C-alpha cells in the first residue's frame, strides 16, 4: 500500500504522517508546497508521478470566520481542491479518503446527526466543505468521506487556546449552548489507516459517508472545564452564543452518530479525555 497525504502539515495530516512512517507504510507527505490541491494541474502531476493506492485529503481551508470575507479562498481548497483530488483518484485508479466536517449541518436537530440527514450549511466554510463532498460523489466511485468535528491536536486548536489563555487570565467565558464531540487528530489518523487497509480488499463495497467523532459529547464550556481542571486559579463561566458573536454562524448541535463506522470498520468512538 502506498499513501499520498494531502495537507500533511495540518493537525490530522501530521499525525497520519507519523503513524504511516511508524508502521512502515510507503507514503508521500505533501504539504501545500509539494502539492497545491487548488491547482488541478499540480494535483494531476503529483498523483501521476507518485501512483498511490490511497489518497488522503487532510488539506482544508479551516479559518471559519475569515472564510466569510474570503469565500473564493475557501472554495479553492475545500471545493475545487476536493474535486481535483477526486478527479486524479478516478483517473489514476486510486481510492480517495476525504475529511469533512459537522459544519455541513445547521445544528437544529435534537438528536445526533446520521449520514443521511439533510445538509444545510450556515457558513461559507460549511458550504465550501459540503460542495467538496458533492464534487467527490459526482466524480469518484471509490471514496470514503469522513465527517468529524471539534478536532484537537498540533498547535492551533481549542485545547491549546484554553491552556494559553489560562496562563494569562483569572477568568474565561466559554460558550455553553453549542454541543459536539471533541475529536483527537491522532484518533482520526488511526481510523484512516484502518479504513485504508480495509478498502483495498477487492470485495469492499461500503463506499460513501461516515461520521467519526470523540465521545462523550459536551458543550464548549464543559470541554474547557475539563481541559482546565488542574488550573484551580482560573474560573470558567458559561455564556450563550449570543455573548460571543462571530462572523460565521456555528451549528448549535454538532453531535454526529458514529454507528456506521463501527458496523463497517469496527471503529469505536475514542474517549477524547484519554488523549488530552
Give a brief rundown of this model:
The model has no long low-confidence stretch (mean pLDDT 95). The protein has 8 helices and 13 strands.
Class inferred from helices and paired strands = alpha/beta
CATH C-level class is: Alpha Beta
Instruction: List the strand order in the largest sheet.
Output: 2-1-3-4-5-10
The helix/strand series, from N terminus to C terminus, equals EHEHEHEHEEHEEEHEEHEEH
Helical region count? 8
Mean pLDDT: 95
Overall, the morphology is globular
CATH superfamily (homologous) name: NAD(P)-binding Rossmann-like Domain
Count the E strands: 13
Structure, explained:
- There is one protein chain.
- The protein has 276 residues and is α/β, with parallel strands linked by helices.
- The chain has a single domain, classed as Rossmann fold, CATH 3.40.50.720.
- It has helices at residues 11-22, 40-50, 71-92, 124-139, 158-166, 185-199, 220-227, 259-265, and strands spanning 2-6, 26-30, 54-57, 95-101, 143-148, 151-152, 171-175, 179-180, 183-184, 208-211, 218-219, 235-239, 253-254.
- The strands form four sheets. It has a six-stranded parallel sheet with strand order 2-1-3-4-5-10, with helices on both faces. Strands 11-8-13 form a three-stranded mixed sheet. A two-stranded parallel sheet has the order 6-9.
- Strand 3, helix 3 and strand 4 (95-101) form a beta-alpha-beta unit.
- Helix 1 crosses helix 6 (185-199) and helix 3 runs parallel beside helix 4.
- The longest helix has 22 residues, at 71-92.
- The model has no long low-confidence stretch (mean pLDDT 95).
Amino acid at each position: 500500500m502506498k499513501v499520498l497525504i494531502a495537507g500533511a502539515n495540518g493537525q490530522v495530516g501530521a499525525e497520519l504522517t507519523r503513524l504511516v512512517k511508524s508502521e512502515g507504510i510507503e507514503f508521500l507527505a505533501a504539504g501545500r508546497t509539494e502539492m497545491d490541491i487548488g491547482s488541478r494541474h499540480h494535483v494531476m502531476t503529483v498523483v501521476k508521478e507518485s501512483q498511490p493506492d490511497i489518497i488522503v485529503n487532510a488539506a482544508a481551508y479551516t479559518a471559519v470566520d475569515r472564510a466569510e470575507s474570503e469565500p473564493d479562498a475557501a472554495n479553492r481548497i475545500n471545493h475545487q481542491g476536493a474535486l481535483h483530488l477526486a478527479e486524479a483518484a478516478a483517473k489514476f485508479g486510486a481510492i480517495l479518503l476525504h475529511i469533512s466536517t459537522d459544519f455541513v449541518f445547521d445544528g437544529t436537530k435534537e438528536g445526533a446527526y446520521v449520514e443521511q440527514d439533510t445538509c444545510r450549511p450556515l457558513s461559507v466554510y460549511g458550504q465550501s466543505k459540503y460542495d467538496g463532498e458533492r464534487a467527490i460523489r459526482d466524480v469518484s466511485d471509490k471514496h470514503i468521506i469522513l465527517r468529524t468535528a471539534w478536532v484537537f491536536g498540533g498547535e492551533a486548536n481549542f485545547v491549546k487556546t484554553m491552556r494559553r489563555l489560562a496562563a494569562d487570565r483569572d477568568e474565561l467565558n466559554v460558550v455553553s449552548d453549542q454541543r459536539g464531540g471533541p475529536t483527537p487528530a491522532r484518533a482520526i489518523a488511526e481510523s484512516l489507516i484502518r479504513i485504508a487497509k480495509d478498502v483495498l480488499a477487492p470485495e469492499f463495497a461500503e463506499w460513501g459517508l461516515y461520521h467519526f467523532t470523540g465521545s462523550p459529547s459536551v458543550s464548549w464550556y464543559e470541554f474547557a472545564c475539563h481541559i482546565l481542571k488542574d488550573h484551580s486559579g482560573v474560573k470558567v463561566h458559561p455564556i450563550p452564543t449570543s455573548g460571543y458573536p462571530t462572523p460565521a454562524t456555528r451549528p448549535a448541535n454538532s453531535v454526529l452518530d458514529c454507528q456506521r463506522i463501527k458496523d463497517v470498520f469496527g471503529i469505536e468512538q475514542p474517549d477524547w479525555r484519554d488523549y488530552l
